[in-house]
Design a protein that fits this description.
Blueprint lengths: L15 H10 L7 H9 L19 H4 L4 H21 L1 H9 L22 H10 L6 H11 L6 H10 L1 H5 L18 H5 L3 H8 L8 H15 L7 H14 L1
Helix pairs in contact: 4-5, 4-6, 4-7, 7-8, 12-13
Length: about 250
């Protein structure tokens, strides 16, 4: 399925009915974490046995769980777009392009080069991706443009990217983060997630009005903090054991 992430189509949403039927079909013991997670992988489920919305009438998570602009859009820019720009223009030229963009208050003005801002905050990442629309790399501008237009509709800009994205691969600008080799595919989950921007806006209005602070905090408490106590192997099992130990103490 992940091989289809880079295509220009919005794939069907994972509905409540489908998810609950799949969960009900898993017969192994939920307390056997490794076995249960393995069974969930067959359905591309995340291992949650009792979703909080399971008994909500007419609830559809694919509708009320809106896209997250930081992790789904602006991370797309910093993980992919900025690298396409760097390979297209060259690092020096990219730095120069950023340096001549006029300072606009209250946008972030980078004192350093784009290559040195990987650890910036969410607002800085947002401003950086918006600024890239001014760089002279046409195809990456369409992706940044769709992010910039996320308060309205981005389907046109996103479609323009898909229409011309092959030029990035043909010119050898799409590289693997670890291998540094030219990639010949578009297995990028964030490209698929961007297909949900327009439908979500049509269903719930402006996405920026919804806060993910609560779930972000929960992610820290039940994932990041317990993960810091592991030996970086078998995360799922060790995190669950850590949480179980914390509840008993």
């Amino acid at each position: 399925m992940y091989k289809d992430f880079g295509d220009p189509h919005h794939h069907p949403s994972h509905t409540t009915a489908t998810t609950l039927v799949q969960l009900a079909s898993i017969e192994c013991d939920v307390l056997n974490v490794d076995q249960y997670f393995a069974a969930c992988e067959c359905f591309h489920l995340n291992g949650i046995s009792h979703p909080f919305w399971r008994d909500w009438p007419l609830a559809e998570p694919s509708e009320f769980l809106t896209p997250k602009s930081l992790h789904e859009w602006h991370r797309q820019f910093w993980d992919h777009d900025i690298h396409w720009c760097k390979h297209t223009l060259g690092a020096t030229e990219l730095d120069f392009q950023f340096s001549i963009i006029p300072c606009i208050t209250p946008s972030q003005n980078f004192a350093h080069t784009p290559r040195q801002v990987a650890g910036t905050s969410g607002p800085s990442r947002q401003n950086g991706s918006s600024m890239t629309r001014e760089c002279r790399v046409p195809n990456t501008r369409t992706v940044s443009g769709s992010i910039y237009l996320s308060c309205r509709q981005s389907s046109t800009s996103l479609q323009e990217f898909h229409d011309h994205k092959d030029a990035i691969i043909q010119n050898g600008h799409h590289h693997g983060e670890k291998t540094k080799q030219v990639l010949r595919h578009w297995h990028i989950p964030k490209l698929e997630l961007m297909q949900s921007i327009t439908p979500s806006i049509e269903q719930v209005g402006s996405i920026l009005q919804w806060s993910a602070d609560t779930t972000e905090h929960a992610h820290i408490e039940v994932i990041k903090d317990p993960a810091s106590t592991t030996n970086n192997h078998s995360y799922d099992t060790q995190i669950c054991q850590s949480l179980d130990h914390s509840e008993k103490c």
